[in-house]
Amino acid sequence: MKFLNLRTFFVAVLLLTFSISSAQSLKQYIPATSNVVIGINWKSLESKISFAQFNGEQVETEDNPFMSLFIRVLENPTAFGIDMDEPSYYFNELGDTVNNRVMLIGLSNRKTFMEKSLEMLKMNDPEASYQRVGNTDQYAYDNLLLSCTNDVAIMMLGKKKSVYNTIPYSSDPEFNYYQERRTISNQIDSMRYSGNDPYLTGEIELDIESDDDEAVVEEAEAEEAEEVAAEEMEIEEEAYYDSDEVMVEEAIEYEEDVEYDGDYYDEDEHPLMQALDVKRDKLREEGARNFARQHNEAIKNQLKRYTTLKPKDTYANHVRFNAVMNNEHDLSLWVNPEAVNFMFSKGLYRELVSYRNRDSIGNLGDDTKLRQLMENNFTYAYGDFNQGKLDLKLVQDRNEILQGFDYIHTEKVNQNMIKYLPQETFGYIAMNLSVEDYFESYRTFMMAVIETLPVKEQVTAGFEMMDIFLNKDIFYNTLKGDGVFAFTGLTTNIRERYKYVYDEETFEREYKMVKDTSLMPEILFMATIQKEENVDRLLLAFEHMKLFTPLGNNIYQVMEDPGKKPTPFFIAKHNGMLFVSNNADLLQNKLTTGLAKADQISGNARTMIETYGNCQYWDSEKSFDAVLEVGKNQRPKEKGKIRVLQKRLASGTVYTKENGSKLETDFTLNFSDSSINSLTEFVNLLHEFEIIR
Length: 693
Description:
The chain is 39% helix and 25% strand.
């Protein structure tokens, strides 16, 4: 029997979900300590997708009966016994000993669900069956537990620990095994070279199937140790040296007439090595059995805990949670604020504390200010499978302190930038923010983090000194805050370098200058200038440092080494904007007029940047073509994944806006074939990436 792995569980999650509502009965099983809660709305999906028309033929599942069953369920979910009017929830909870991933499913027909789920489970565990425990039917195997009552099914996957860490062999059995293996290997070599291997001549036999293998091995090892010691003593006695005390000969006589069975030259076939392997396998099996038994008990105890939670310890009456979950979206996601705050503060602390002090991670000092910044902030998301696209909305509902960090502008970026974006642009990021407000909020945040450090006084002093000597006029008022970073195509990069070249005529290698030609992404960064005199001061300073070389007309070339070799990148200043690009023709010849209207970006790519101040766009076909062209030496598997994305995806867009206390980010994933419902395409994508294979 094979162990059920995480990939199998992921399939089961997809198989058994897709429902969300305000039903109290399932929320009472969700602990308030859950890190993430996910739900999917059957009714919403049913209103836009005909499950009967779900195109299962698009997913190749000939070698995967588990996936085949999943497709059949999507074609007719009610036939699986799932109640379309009841909610389903998935949640994740990190415990001290177990990391639980739990699925709650409302049932309309308990018997049908059990029959269908057993059909699914037997594809991995042929002996799968439900056992009656109280008023529930339970199935437990490896780290998976299924429990069914009349109207609720709970599927739980406990954290998979390493089986080998539980074997009563040593703290590190694999390490010790290879240590013993090396010792035995040396003994076998010694016996062969001396022509005295009692296991090959039949003087000693090992019954490797015997339960007394360990004793036999120990006895054999002791005898061999004596033989090796005797041989070493004989060598020392018979060796003689010249006057300079240099060994010139060893009087060792080997038995030339000893014949060996050729098979035994493979040390894995030697009885001593086979006995060691048998010993290791038995310990592994024993450890696996003990682990499975203990782990199943731990999962059952966790299940009992979920079914006996008090209302105050669940999300059943959590006002904000219910507000997020009670909606008409296909997907809903809730992130526990406390979990986010803990992981975020711990992550920052890890970054700020030196590596050699990593053992002290988690021993935070006074984190009052940090918690004030982070408390009462809520993160959640919604998703919808619309025709030809998947829409996601991420919401960050901020507290009053973070609302004061109002650095995101809703105004559009400088529209003059559009005329420099070519039609072949395969992706860009546009942003519009207040530089001063952004860095002031960052400073406030960092000061709160510093308060948690054991050495906060020293760090605070350094931070304050930097703040005193910082030229805020240059720092805050050089650029306005709006800009566009774009990948506009591919360009040829010719690079000169010295290397050894083989001459086929002289058969010699010569060290000389050669030219390498390669493709590289063509990039373009544009930003609106706030104070031109500040930009001039910076450019002049960089010129004095020989980091830039002036080419005239406010155009500079970036130097690879100060004053030595130029790079393909240029910097230019024109019409109140700063440009950085490796497109020499654009910066040297087209800054005044820009691109012709027919050569500029169009369609949705243009509409996005004309509408939103903070947005992103990428074209799948163009961008993945570029990735494949630049990365010609990529491994076939990586190229295959890129081609999968290129086949399934057409484009993607992202834009961010402020809505009162909320910071909302909208993601749209457009699929290539808009005639197929996006749920089908999403499943195809997951399957082809072998996420649900």
